[in-house]
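Weekend entry, working from home. Most of the wet-lab plans are on hold until the incubator is repaired, so I used the time to fold the two sequences that have been sitting in the queue since the last round of cloning. Logging both here for the record. First:
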Amino acid sequence: MKITSLTIYPVKSLKGIALERMPIDKRGPVFDREWMLVDRNNRFVSQRELAKLCLIETELTDFSQGKQLESARRLVLRAGERDISINIEAPAQGQPIEVKVWNDLCQAYEQDKNASSLLSEFLDYDVRLVRMCASEKRIVDPKYAPAAEDKDHIVGFADGFPLLVISDASLQDLNAKLEYPVEMNRFRPNLTFDGDEPYLEDKIKELQSADLTLALVKPCARCQITTIDQDSADTGKEPLRTLSNYRKIDGKVMFGQNAIVKELKAGAALHLFEPLVLR
């Protein structure tokens, strides 16, 4: 098997960035869901409430070391015909604030007030762009990701786990059942891999590359974000309606597997088309 796509989503629920090389650290893919938008109550907002979020593009630029992603110094957001370039090396302004993502309370700070204003205007909804504090340790549910060697697994602002893995064959199987096929971006995975067997990700326990080992720990319960066309923000009933006919477990529609980093070398990264060992 080999990796067929690598994607990060620097800002939760905004467009992702396709990569050829994905550096991995203790929280998962570097810069993945390191930022998010919060409302007036400092609670996260996502495409569940604001489908238009899917139209906002993200880009990491101004690399200090060649094109190494982890050396990026600016985050660019494009909302409609306007864009803003944010210096992500600038020190935090003001005191940290407590923000809420699902049931977790995390320490964060507003990254850029001008960016918050631009996004609020585009969305016609009052939001702030916040960044997770470097010292924050948001713990993955120990029911699915038990601590190893007294070290907890941690995650950024992703819903609950550092990575999401889906096989191309699973999407192909789904699309064969749909009147109109959907793109993989509806499901927002970090890693996809090839193979002929649909839902192979449900059967394996680990994916191993040259630099790291991922443990697949929990099926991903899907929500209405999968019914949003990521290029237009139009919504419908598919693919959830079809998936509910054959992928429902305990009342939830499952598609893809959540993963944690089990073993990690210093400077670890995943690479597009890199072979994987499945266990």
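Second, folded right after the first finished:
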Amino acid sequence: MSDTTDSRTRWLALYVLCLASLMIVLDVTIVGVALPSIREDLGFSETSLAWVVNGYLLTYGGFLLLGGRLGDLFGHRRLFIAGISTFTLASLACGLATTQWFLIAARSVQGVGGAVASAVSLSLMMGLFTEPADRAKAMGIFGFVASGGGSIGVLLGGILTDALSWHWIFLVNFPIGVLVVLLTLRLIPGAGPVAAERRLDVAGAITVTAALMLAVYAIVNGNHNGWTSAQTLGVLGAAVAVFGAFLAIESHVRAPLVPLRLFRLRNLSTASGVGVLWSGAMFAWFFMVALYLQLVLGYSPLQIGLAFLPGNLIMGALSIGLSAKLVLRYGIRKPLATGLLLASAGLLLLVRAPVDGSFVADVLPSMILLGLGAGMAFNPVLLAAMGDVEPAEAGLASGVVNTSFMMGGAVGLAVLASAAASRTSTLVDAGHSEVAALTGGYHVAFLLGAVFAAAAAVIGATLIRESAPAQEVVGEPAVESC
């Protein structure tokens, strides 16, 4: 096979991985637009409807670390195919659901499949590209899909729900998932396990998965049950206790699920911390801006999706082109900090968005800054996280990064929604109109999101280590040989 053919195959394989990642990311936000239709059709109550979203988040967050480690033990491609197949079949079940319990159960299985596939996809991508410039460009494309997929989901959810029915937000995954599996078998080279120790730490797997699921459960229900309620505090306490048991197990077993020395890798730990804060800021963009457009400015689902389009286009242009060049020229820290500060500025601009705001004057400038910031920042975050990880632990490291983003999004959204609701309630009690009170609540959420992004910029700029010239940092040893 010629070098040209090899190169073409690698890039086609990357697009397959990105398509799979897009399906999984979309399923977090695409459902939000369709929730009113799902509630009306299947007769959900306000409380039970939340489980259409929470069932997915619970298993997705819980199985990321386990999925990544299983990939190291049994082969990344094998686990990727298993995860996508599970996700695809569960999507078909969701689309055919006619009862509440069946839809929630299928969504939970979807989360398992999505977690397994997500946890190893970054490892597969790192293995496909070994040249510094190619790896930086590939990481930029992958980062754009990961960061932009959420807002794309708002647009696609509105189109499918308005034009067809809510069933199609799930059914559309089936042919795409089948295509991804077939193309993976054709384009992505198979490889054996990369971990020297094939033994699975069962006790560690059970405790870390249970701890993550308990934590996600407490977070996603915190606003409804009350953050100081006995139920919320009890579940959080149980999550901390189980996680403590997990740490004790990992420090004593011969072949731990998560070697604790992994967290001594400075760039991985720092990038994970940045990911938590950055994900919280991104949720301020995806969810709170969508609520402002819908409930304050009166936009339809389709109009909301179109409003996000400028930011997504800018993000894509930067991620696919300029971001890689910036990393190769300036290293990781400068583009990361600059991108996060631009995103922080975009969220700060939204703090002044009025009740009678217009898109061009009050929303578009923020969308442009957020698109610029996200397009610049995601590539460096991912490169920092994976740069100094050994091939045998690449899947686990990928799971750690995905877990940090997922937990950051869940915690961030809970904090933002709670702060916005509290401010709105205060303004209503003070005699403000409902629309003015909602706007005031969203302003607080935007301000907190700006603080998250700025804090992430400071942490990334001061703690991420540029241990080698940029060309070498991006060109660390590959996970798997092509």
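Plan for Monday: verify the second prediction. Residues 119 and 399 are 4 Å apart (CA to CA).
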